[in-house]
Structures are given as structure tokens and as C-alpha cells.
Amino acid sequence: MVEASWIESEVLKAVPNAVVEVIDLHNSGDHFHVRIISEDFEGVRPLQRQKQVLAVMKQHIPNPIHALDLKCMTPKQAETAGDTAFDPHGGGQGVHIKRIMKNKE
User: Which listed site, 24, 40, 65, 102, has its alpha carbon 20 to 30 Å from 87?
Assistant: First the structure.
């Protein structure tokens, strides 16, 4: 079981100047939704953005992380993005759920 703060620090290794929001989808420490916002993603295809993050995270999958939903976007895209996260195991086939805003201090 890992903490959301650990996921955030690992993602920042791949995209150092990003804003990272991590949600533990089941409060189990192994299913996460990760929203990554960075200007570095400008002009980069969505799959390439995810590959950049997965290059760091793949060593942690499937153990201790079982499911990792990545939403990689530019700041402009984040302004218009919906307020949902995808739970790959929700409802047995995956379901979009309301995203919980993470307050940073």
C-alpha cells in the first residue's frame, strides 16, 4: 500500500515542473487516478505524455500499484477538462466518477 504523496513524488521525477493531483480511488493504496498538468506537454501527443510518466511508474506496476489512470494535459486543456476521474475497476467494467479536489497548502 502506498500513499498519494509518494505517487506524486514519483510522477514529478518524470515531469518535474508539473502540477500533480493524485486520488486513491478505493482508499486501498493501490488504485490511483493521477491528473498531471504541465506546459511541457504542449505539442506532445497524449500517448507520448503517458509514456513519459510510465517510464518512471512501470517498475511499480503491478506491485505495489495495481491500477493507474493517467490524465496528462496542458494548462489550457486543464481549464476545460471535465471534473471526473476514471476508475478502471468501478462497476466491474470501469466508470467515470466525480473527481475530488485536492487542496494543497
Answer: 40
